[in-house]
Amino acid sequence: MILTALVAAETLAQRLDDPDWVVFDCRHDLADPARGRAEYAASHIPGARFLHLDEDLSAPKTGTNGRHPLPDPEVLMEKLGRAGVDSRKQVVAYDAQGGMVAARLWWLLRWLGHLPVAVVDGGWNQWISEGRVQTAEVPQLQPTRFSGKANSNWVGADFVRARLYDPGVVLVDARAPDRFRGQNETLDPVGGRIPGSRNRYFRDNLDASGRFKSPEALEKEFGTVLGPAGAENAVSYCGSGVSACHNLLAMEIAGLRGARLYPGSWSEWCADPSRPVESGEPRAARR
Fold first, then answer.
1. What number of helices (H) and strands (E) belong to the chain?
2. Does residue 159 sit in helix, strand or coil?
3. Does domain 157-285 have CATH number 3.40.50.300?
4. 61: helix, coil or strand?
5. pLDDT given at position 285
6. How many CB atoms lie within 10 A of CB 43?
7. What beta strand segments (E) does 200-243 contain?
8. In 146-192, at which residue ranges do the beta strands (DSSP E only) sit?
9. What is the pLDDT of residue 287?
């Protein structure tokens, strides 16, 4: 069985002793970067390894490359190998942030060409609500060699800027609606959005229980956002290239494939004052 999008907590519970499954705890708090590691140390899914968003799933910041730049692929592959991941392993990721950070790892592995990777539907909260086993024991790792090759399923700022007003390209912003409008910005020094982009708040991919909506519901909702351009002409972004991956995962669940990530996202875009900025209600929504 190969899983490439989601895995139920029940299914993972049945595979905890499977040597071909590698589980990663990706819990993270943007406002308190040390919190995820502390929570992992206190309790986690048995066998899970910990990956830190800033330290493992991102490269160092320069001030112009966004808050969570893509990690060096060779460095990431070395870390994955040390954690026991090779080309045969089914990777599973979870967090307590609605899948936001786990989806980043999901996307990164697909970026490296590793398809058997899935996010726990409902994450840590679902695991706890079902009364699943927890532990504070750190697993003994069996290092191996992870061999992958980074592909081109992402775009840079120059690509985005050259296509700002191209009706054949859809920019989809995963941030909350107020930040999309340029209001209540607390993470980046400039509020606003990339001109012409459309808003699809990543949490709208989840139902009231915190699990992903059905493929049919996601296909319908994203179809409204994407319009005739389709997923293959979509570019997903957010504040720093993390929650944008949640939208890409939701599109994968819906069978809408081919969209790309703009990893620098708003935090990179707004670092250059020459790049245009838009705020307020989108033109189509104005009365």
1. 10, 9
2. helix
3. no
4. coil
5. 46
6. 12
7. 234-237
8. 170-173
9. 32
Cβ burial of 77 (10 Å; 0-12, 13-18, 19+) is buried
Give me the pLDDT at residue 1, please: 80
Distance of CA 159 to the CA centre of its chain: 21
Tokens of 152: 């081109």
Where the chain has pLDDT below 50, the residues are 285-287
Domain 157-285 in the same topology as domain 6-129? yes
**What's the CA gap between 201 and 260, in Å, rounded?**
17
Domain boundaries, the chain: 6-129, 157-285
Over residues 22-38, the pLDDT tens digits come to 999 999 999 999 999 99
In the beta sheet, which residues pair with residue 25?
A: 50, 94
Q: Specify the CATH superfamily of domain 6-129.
A: Rhodanese-like domain (3.40.250.10)
Contacts of 205 (CB under 8 A, 6+ apart): 212, 213, 218, 246, 247, 249, 250
Whole-number pLDDT of residue 286: 40
Identify the pLDDT of residue 283: 75
**In this structure, what token pair is assigned to residue 149?**
């090759």
Provide the annotated active-site residues: 238
DSSP 140: P
